Hints:
Mean pLDDT: 82
Structural class: alpha+beta
Number of helices: 11
CATH architecture of the largest domain: Sandwich
Strand order of the largest sheet: 10-11-15-14
Order of helices and strands: HHHHHHHEHEEEEEEEEEEHEEEEHH
CATH topology of the largest domain: HSP40/DNAj peptide-binding domain
Distance between the termini: 111 Å
Amino acid sequence: MADKRDYYEVLGVSREANPDEIKRAYRKGALKYHPDSFKGEKAEGETRFKELAEAYEVLSDSVKRNRYDQYGHAGMEGAGVHDFGNMGFGDIFSMFQDIFGQMGGRGGGGRRGQMDHGEDLQVEIELTLEQVSSGIEEPIEFVRMDLCDECSGSGARRGSEPIRCETCNGYGQVQQQESGFFGMSVRVIPCPKCQGRGVTITDPCPSCRGSGRARKNRVLTVKVPAGVSDGQVIRVRGEGGPGQDGTTRGDLHCYVRVKTHPLLVRNANDLVCQVPIAFSQAALGGKIDVPTLSGSHEISIPHGSQNGDVITLRGKGLPSLRTGRRGDQHVQVFIEVPKKLTKHQTELLKQYAETEQVDVTPQRKGFLDKLKEYFA
């Protein structure tokens, strides 16, 4: 034990230091020697970092501290002090997550921190194209696990308190030795007795049976921006289920589903509408009403329009989610050929057909010339 430095010296505090002074000293030193911030030799930083962790574990525990004050390092044998020499930075940071919070660089993502993150939930929001065009604030109702009202999430009967887990000493994690190709190794796992909570319940709450959780209905208004696409996800932070410590929550993921429009088809931020027109409208031209997301809109059909021609309405599409600029609406016309004709209509078309043999359009004339050559 002669090679070990005094724990008070390691932390740089006096023997009369209170728990808050010890905690502040450890946090300051651990962040200084963490590999993300230490400027000196890597080996030195690692040694100092783990030395600080061991000193803090002993001096932050009143029982271990009294024992150390009386017997020094020799009194720590068999006292349940972790072997920090075989632990990684992430495991050490996760053990003392209450000190570092969201800080700590690479080590901040330890197992304990991940376990405390609450459950993420999923819901669907169904929208029409009209709602996509303008954006809406949509009220949604869902069920989530929440803190029990009876015990405020502690899991203990009202008037009682959870006690620190004796197996992990309140850390929520224990070391497990494993034999492998390179010999014995140590890894940190969630405490099997308290399931990583760090406390155990001796007198459970009758309402939640010690779980500290209850199913509750939740009504929330979600703002859906204009231009959102089908399948897109809107994340609402902190509206999921609570984590094990009850202080952090998961997120709510709202999956957007856009209903099929009866007349309009979406193509990115543009809209496409297929409109049937009569042969006479195509030949003579005219005006027709077409549907848009803002209501009926009158357009002009040029005379001599062909089947499949497209007329574009600028700015009548959907807004871009990123820039807000609106796309266009494309109206594609299809010439409808009547299946039944009156006697008068038949006579008129026959008269027209006779004139077609004299006044052939350039396009048709070119096709007929090619047809004659093909069969010649």
